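anyone seen this seq b4? input:
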Amino acid sequence: MRFLFTLSRPVKRVVGVLSDALAITAAFWGAYYTRMGDISEYVADPEYWFLLAALIVATIAIIVRSGLYRAILRYMSTAAIVSVSATAAVSALLVVLLAHYLQVFLPRSVPFIYASYFVIFSGGSRLLMKHYINSALSSDSEPVIIYGAGSAGRQLVNLIRQGKEYKVVAFIDDDKSLKKTTIHGITVFRRSKLKSLVEKHSVAKVLLAIPSASRGQRRDIIERLTELQVEVLTVPNLDDIINGSFQLDQLKEVTVEDLLGRDTVEPNQELLEKNITGKVVMVTGAGGSIGSELCRQIISNRPQALVLFELSEFGLYQIDREVNQLVNDLGLEITVFPILGSVQNSERLKSVMSSFKVQTVYHAAAYKHVPLVEYNVIEGVENNIFGTFRTAQAAVASKVESFVLISTDKAVRPTNVMGTTKRMAELGLQALAEQEELKENGTRFCMVRFGNVLGSSGSVIPLFKKQIAMGGPVTVTHPDIIRYFMTIPEAAQLVIQAGAMGKGGDVFVLDMGEPVKIAELAINLIHLSGLEIKDESNPEGEIEIHYSGLRPGEKLFEELLIGDNVSQTEHQRILTANESYLSVEDYQELLQQIDDACHITAHEQIRQLLLDAPTGFAPTDGIGDLVWNASQRA
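predicted toks r here
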């Protein structure tokens, strides 16, 4: 058989012809034997052999015409058996015609018996060869289980059988009607059989072929798969498989979005368009994680122009290039202005907003990394507090219609400088909002507060994946630490919708779903990579988890609300909070004191002013500024 694999295609076709000639001969004499019992007198008659020779030539000519010899056996489908059956019917008719022409005895049942035998011998030999070839080629292939016996799963089997990398040993599907059925020769089992199938076939990978399932359904399935410590790969898109653009190397790891299982809510298109469509929109911090996604969402809602305001030259270059490509792809006529600048430069901000007649501002520029702001206190204060207030004042001076601040859950009862500066930024906008409400067409200020976003710069998820890929250890700060998570696109979409609902001074809080225990997230990611935890109870595992301790200013638990005075809005994922604030005069007086302290680098005074401010600042550590600490030791 292995010798046959090495033969050239023309030689293989000759072998196919000889095989069919043998099948026709066996079917012909088999039919006579089945009907008559004793066929010695027919075998001895040359006319029957002449009939058989003519039948072989005519039937093989029909098979050649059908293209069956051009088919590759290992990829042969049920259509080939249909072709064999049709050939058998025509060949049986030829038996009748040739027998009549040669005047040989032909019992009426022989053509029917002959056709049946021909299908069995010719079609059966092809199926046996296909099975043997596939078995031989998959003997060294990795056994896998496909979860999902729907369209995606069936198409995936066909794709896998074209290669040598995997062999499918079972389907798993939750549809009761598919239980114990066979699809493409593979049995479908219920989910309860998954563990025993993994052990029986030594399966190390499960391929998730349920692209149409909701995130909640996928999470339920994935949570069960994490218990098996198998690597889980997913099919990204059914359309890609069907149209042939999908390749096996495009199977991807389970996304954390699936692991968290948070189903998205259809956005309110009216809210998405209210402050954007046909308007000049400006995004500060446009090159950051949230800022760049805001730009993508804004473009899709067709503004008149988009101003990209960014301090980082490289960040601005990247988002400018991407946004312009998106504009071209969508066939839109939107002007994009890439502007380098700092939110601490009041004159630059006023000049930009006035020159482009900006109507909506999304203020995403901020230092957000807790330990880094803890190590660089004055820069964090200057950028997050003064930068926000100066941007807001520039918006007022330039008669901007709407101003939305991207805030954070760390602004609630902050234990670190970053969270405190963001709460101070909120207080500044609330103070200005009170002032602007007295004007006929004052700027509407609001702020949107939410937790961590998946995949942002500094996010824990990419770090965990990188550590797992390198063989560990995975570092978690504390076994009990929890965080709220949301995808960047959903966060940006909700920010835009919340901003459209702002009346002035609103504090919007995004519904982040259930909090996630970071240690459990790390464990699940390790298991979904097909690896085991290495610890005292399992010293043979591959990946260790190290607990490094809370970083400076880090909380175990994050909150989204300061008080209980919360109201529902017209969007089910957006809440609004009524929180206390300062007057503009009091706020500016406090700012002046902080500014004076920053100019003389008086860190003790800055710390005290932040403690005295109505932010709820309750630090867990001393002053962490690296330069100040170095000067104290000198």
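The chain has a mean pLDDT of 82. The CA atoms of residues 19 and 125 lie 8 Å apart. kinda curious what u guys think
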